[in-house]
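Chapter summary example.
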Amino acid sequence: MFTAMKQLQKVMLPLASKDDLSALKSFAITMAIAFPVVFSLLLPWLFSADMPIWPFAVSIVLGILYLVVPHLLYYPYVGWMVIASILGWLNTKLLLGIIFYLLITPIGVMMKALGKLQYKHRVHEPSNWVTRDDKQSQKQKARLEEPF
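The structure predicted for these 148 residues follows.
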């Protein structure tokens, strides 16, 4: 359990302080709107399911906490930030890795096999430096001096 907490602290997003009422109120408004939109409208529409009522209850509770005792919003806020931190870690490590190896790598291998890469790999030369002829270099220099 202790190592799990250490791992979570490595990926944890920064938290607002318990006294930062504007951040907690902003969290309450955002979640009170987003929760029913996602869980009562978007997901049931995507999966052709019935519209649940419980997300509206969560929004009402967040609204009451927003109006009456905003400092109690800290605990749902911390819970949400733990979930968001884990999802953020999964997104950056797992999903982007999968996308790279399933999409970008095959494109690179295919382009190399077809000879469509933009660079020329010259094994027998000591450097990949390309020297330009005088006309090209003068044209480039003039373009850099007056770019517009």
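To summarize the output: Residues 100 and 115 are 21 Å apart (CA to CA).
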